[in-house]
Every structure is written in C-alpha cells, then in structure tokens.
Write a structure and sequence with these properties.
By secondary structure, the chain is of the alpha/beta class. It folds into three domains: 3-87, Orthogonal Bundle (Arc Repressor Mutant, subunit A); 91-147 and 261-287, Periplasmic binding protein-like II (D-Maltodextrin-Binding Protein, domain 2, 3-Layer(aba) Sandwich), CATH 3.40.190.10; 153-175 and 183-258, D-Maltodextrin-Binding Protein, domain 2 (3-Layer(aba) Sandwich). 46% of the residues lie in helices and 17% in strands. It is built from eleven helices and eleven strands. Strands 3, 4, 5, 6, 7, 8, 9, 10 and 11 form a nine-stranded mixed sheet that branches. Helix 1 packs across helix 4 (60-87) and helix 2 crosses helix 3 (30-44). The protein is rod-shaped and about 105 Å long. The two termini are 49 Å apart. Residues 1-59 form the HTH lysR-type domain. Keywords: DNA-binding, Transcription, Transcription regulation. Belongs to the LysR transcriptional regulatory family. InterPro entries: LysR_HTH_N, WH-like_DNA-bd_sf, WH_DNA-bd_sf.
Length: 291
C-alpha cells in the first residue's frame, strides 16, 4: 500500500473533521481518501475514525497514531523537496571561452528541457583539463586529437581583407628577397588552439615553408589576437563561426587541414554520456561544429 499517501489523507481528514473537506485539501477525490484511510486502518489493525457520527471523529487509536502520521508526512515532503533541489543542482561545466553568450544561453535552455542544469565556467584547454582533474568542475568539454573527438570544428585563416583566392597558403607569407623592407605578416594562434596537435603542426609548416619564427605567435587571449588582426594584414587562426562573429574573411589553409576536436569528460562517466547524447546538437552549435 501507499502508506505515505494514506497518511496524508488521514492527517488531512483529521485536521478538517470531514472526509469531503479533507479529500479536497489533499487534492484527491473523496472515495480515494476513504479507500486509502480504510487500507491504512487494515494495515495498522484498528479503526482511526469513528464512523458512527456525521463528522470524521478520531478514535482513541486514531489520536495516538496522528502524531506519527504527521511526522511521516513531513518527512516525505522534506524528501520530495530535497529530491527536487538535488535535481536542480547545477552541473559545473568547463567550456571553451570561444562560445558566445547567445549560444551558451541556447545550450542552457535546451539542457533545462532535458532536466539538466548547467553552470558554465569558461577556460582555455589546459585549464579545463586541470579543473576537471581537481574536481572543481563536474564535467568539461575537452580538446582531443582529431580522430578521437565527438565534435569537429574546421580551422582556417581569417583576415580583415577578403583574400582573392579560395585557399590561403602559409607559403605566401614569406617576405621577398629584394626590394624595400616590408612588415612580415603573422599568423596569430588563440589560446583555444594552443594545443600540440594544432599549434605544433602550424609551427612545423611555418618552418618547412621558410617563414621567420616570429611569424607564428600564440596570443594571450582571443581579444588581443583579433586586435592585432584588425590593425594590420595579419591573420587569425580561427573557425568559420568565429570569423563571422568578428567580421573577418575566412579561408581554409592550403598546406594542411586543421580541426578543433572536442569530447566531454566528467567525474561521472554516465554524466559525460548523457551530455554527449541528450545535448549533442546544442553543444555542436555552441562549439561551431559541423553537426
């Protein structure tokens, strides 16, 4: 039997002295309240109400049982409240700081529909991994090698001026051997791409085509990297979505194919899988991934 439901009906009827009013207060039909109380009486082995009167009058046994029933109802209500609060406890999620406020809001809204409450913490890749390792967050969107990711984001070079070609070759950034000196164009790598499987490949390509070491630089922040590009002919290593947001012209790189590759890691493996499956598409949109 539903002993909590029966005790709720018992307490409600006893407080109002009426099966009809007690049932209404408990938000159940009067016949249901009567059946629940009868089942409780059978379970306890004695009558709770004196049914010889028009009012719902407690028997001596009912008066003795009422305090215990009230305690059980209060405990059940406290448990329900705690359960609802626990379900609403946010999952602290470390995310790339390249995600826009709008995309994060859409991700958060979709997560709430799925019963998941998120608390975002933006950080670069190495910091996200450390936050998860130290359990300062419950989950993190991590950068992984290209063949291990759940989401992939193509990278290319973005500039203020629209390139005449459909592809930008790093080789074209070499300065001429003769003539007057000219400023060397640089490629700026933002913190999100300061990971070995992206940064090192760009550096190796730089060396193989004969660029100067300083022509590829890691910026301390995306803002400073974009500022360098706005004020010069420099190029920003970026995703197509970032280029659009920054008002830059994006092209793929001729010498190599680069992608950001992401997965979800969590202190609880089931939590990671839930994020991968139930929130796959909104996370993809937030990251600027192609599906």
């Amino acid at each position: 039997m539903d002993i909590v439901g029966a005790c709720r009906a018992f307490v409600s009827v006893s407080e109002r002295g009426s099966f009809t009013l007690g049932a209404a207060a408990a938000r159940i039909p009067q016949p249901v309240a009567s059946r629940r109380i009868a089942a409780l009486e059978q379970h306890l082995g004695a009558r709770l109400f004196d049914r010889s009167t028009r009012r719902a009058t407690l028997t001596p046994f009912g008066r003795d049982m009422l305090p215990s029933a009230k305690r059980l109802v209060r405990l059940a209500e406290a448990m329900e409240y705690d359960a609802e609060r626990a379900k609403r406890t946010p999952l602290r999620l470390a995310i790339p700081d390249t995600c826009t406020t709008r995309d994060l809001a859409l991700l958060d809204a979709e997560a709430r529909k799925q019963g998941v409450y998120l608390d975002f913490h933006a950080a670069p890749p190495a910091e996200r991994a450390e936050l998860l390792r130290s359990q300062q967050v419950g989950a993190a969107i991590t950068e992984v090698p290209a063949d291990e990711g759940r989401w992939s984001v193509p990278l290319g070079l973005a500039a203020t001026a629209e390139p005449s070609a459909a592809t930008v070759y790093i080789d074209t950034l070499r300065t001429g051997r003769g003539g007057r000196a000219q400023r060397r164009r640089r490629i700026w790598i933002q913190p999100e791409d300061d990971v070995p499987h992206i940064r090192d490949r760009v550096m190796r390509t730089r060396d193989s085509v004969g660029l100067q070491p300083a022509q590829v630089a890691v910026a301390p922040a995306l803002t400073s990297a974009a500022a360098e590009v706005y004020g010069s002919t420099d190029l920003l290593l970026a995703s197509p979505a970032q280029a659009r947001e920054l008002g830059l012209h994006w092209r793929p790189i001729g010498e190599l194919r680069l992608v950001r590759s992401f997965d979800v890691a969590a202190t609880d493996g089931d939590e990671a899988e839930r994020l991968r499956t139930t929130l796959h598409d909104p996370i993809a949109h937030c990251l600027g991934a192609a599906g």
